[in-house]
Amino acid sequence: MFRIEGGIMGRPKANKPRNAITNVRLTEEERASFDAMATERGFANVSEYIRFLHNQHVGVAAQTAEPDSYQARFPKKLIRSFYKTGLGEMVWGDSRAYLFHGAKPDSVDLIMTSPPFGLVRKKSYGNEDADEYCNWFRPFAEGFKRVLKDDGSLVIDIGGAWVPGQPTRSLYHFKLLVMLVEEYGFHLCQEHYWWNPAKLPTPAEWVNVRRVRVKDAVNTVWWLSKTPYPKANNRRVLAPYSKSMQDLLRNGYVAKLRPSGHDISSKFSKDNGGSVPPNLLAIANTESTSRYQEYCRENNIPIHPARFPPQLPEYFIRFLTDKGDTVLDPFGGSCVTGAVAEALGRRWVCCEMSEEYLNGALARFEPSPAPLLKDRPTNYEIAPPCAVPVSDKDTPLFADGGAKRPPLAKQPAAKPQPEQPRPKRRVREAA
Fold first, then answer.
1. Cα separation of 128 and 54, whole Å?
2. Is the confidence at residue 20, as pLDDT, over 80?
3. Do residues 327 and 109 make contact, with C-beta atoms less than 8 angstroms apart?
4. Out of 164, 337, 418, 425, which could bridge 313 as a Cys pair, Cβ 3.0 to 4.6 Å?
């Protein structure tokens, strides 16, 4: 099961096409009420609204399901070992079988993963509908709770989705967070936001065409735990000091009360080797050539379309685990998490349902484990908004909020170019 971040792909054939029809007899008033309620709640049609109501009832039933039933539904025969190193293992098959049969209870220090996003259109890599996402995720949540240590962490990188046909956002990833906390007892340690400086302006319809939204440039990363006090140390993930902080350390700092009311003491000028990073993780996902991609091309193996950059799992593995600890990625993909864990001396397990993606992942370990990146940018620039002068009069708001596409702008006619004189042909003289 896989996710995708940006890019343009043709819509693949659905694995479960919706070609069955059920007729519901309604009065004119009932049909009008259904139409009005579907529109009010942001659904494209009555079918989507009815499906949403059904899924709500299915969700209530799923909450009362016995966790023991998951062990029967996902037997151990659904997984097998695919590849091993001295520290870790790729497991081919359904990670739910590994969570309930392959892993021991309370054995994992960090679950670092990026599940398939809850998109509104079906993709070939097996994403789930946004309105069904929590129901689909429940076996994983129960399995995470089973295998995670009391001082361990659960880190989920998850992107948002848009309501079909509207410039409004789905709440599925927030609902997932609430479910994990309120139903399964996880604690939200801190939310992070992964900012990809190289991300394209999406969604194009609302950003580039109708111009009523700004580009979606961050993924939400939920950091959760079984108890309020998972092991962690932010000194493991320090960022370089800014130029102004370096000047302050050289020249000294006079303790004073700031206008905001914060009393900054002389301890502020202590050199701690780096600054505590913010929960905004600036990591460009710009890999275009790598050992992994070259290996896949040479061997005609599909390249995983949605790999997160190694620096993302590296941050959390350094922050939350020690050498020898166990890191699990239940949606392993091309095994980026496993490769980073291997380089950092952690034990690891990556589960993946696609044998093709695991074949490509071998490039990260053979002939030797891939090293971590040494050269990386120390900072990225983000331009402040409203820095380009714009006239309100010349740039009116879209009064309809983008409900209709703006007319295509007429391209200015190309100016006729003066005809260039043809060069004269030189006639060679006879010898």
1. 16
2. no
3. yes
4. 337
- Active-site position among 94, 95, 109, 115: 115
Nearest CA among 364, 337, 357, 358 for reference residue 108:
337
3-state secondary structure of 73: helix
| Residues 173, 271: Cα–Cα separation, whole Å | 39
Strands lying side by side in the sheet with 148-158 = 79-84, 88-93, 347-352, 326-329, 108-113, 148-158, 218-225, 187-195, 280-282
| CB contact set of 45 (below 8 Å; sequence gap of 6+) | 38
* b/e sequence 267-292, b meaning 16+ C-beta within 10 Å: eebeeeeeeebeeebbbebeeeeeeb
**What is the C-alpha to C-alpha distance for residues 146 and 162, in angstroms, rounded to an integer?**
32
pLDDT, tens digit (0-9, with 9 covering 90-100), for 399-428: 999 999 888 766 666 666 666 666 555 544
Known active-site residue 157: yes
Note the pLDDT tens digit of each residue in 357-391. Answer: 999 999 999 999 988 877 776 678 888 889 899 99
Q: Phi/psi class of residue 185: alpha, beta or left (left: φ > 0; alpha: ψ in -120 to 50)?
A: left
Catalytic residue among 109, 129, 131, 157: 157
Per annotation, catalytic residue among 94, 95, 109, 114: 114
Q: Cα 425 to chain center, whole Å?
A: 64
Q: What is the pLDDT of residue 120?
A: 45
C-alpha–C-alpha distance, residues 66 and 61, integer Å: 10
Whether 114 is a known active-site residue: answer yes
d(CA 378, CA 241): 10
Q: Which residue has the higher pLDDT, 38 or 295?
A: 295
Q: Is 0.90 surpassed by the pTM of this model?
A: no
Cα separations (Å) of 408 from 207, 209, 404, 411? Answer: 15, 9, 12, 9
Q: Are 338 and 348 in contact (CB under 8 A)?
A: yes
Q: Please, what is the Cα angle at 251 between 246 and 253, to 5 degrees?
A: 90
Q: In this structure, is the dihedral angle defined by the CA atoms of residues 112, 117, 122 and 127, taken in order, positive or negative?
A: positive
For residue 389, how many other CB atoms are within 10 A of its CB? 5
3-state secondary structure of 135: helix
Q: Which sign does the torsion angle of CA 106, 107, 110, 116 carry?
A: negative
**pLDDT digit string, tens, across residues 86-131:** 999 999 999 999 999 999 999 999 999 999 887 544 443 344 455 6
| Sequence-distant (≥ 6) Cβ neighbours of residue 277 within 8 angstroms | 234, 237, 238, 239
User: What confidence score (pLDDT) does residue 46 get?
Assistant: 79
The C-alpha atoms of residue 273 and residue 390 are separated, in whole angstroms, by: 43
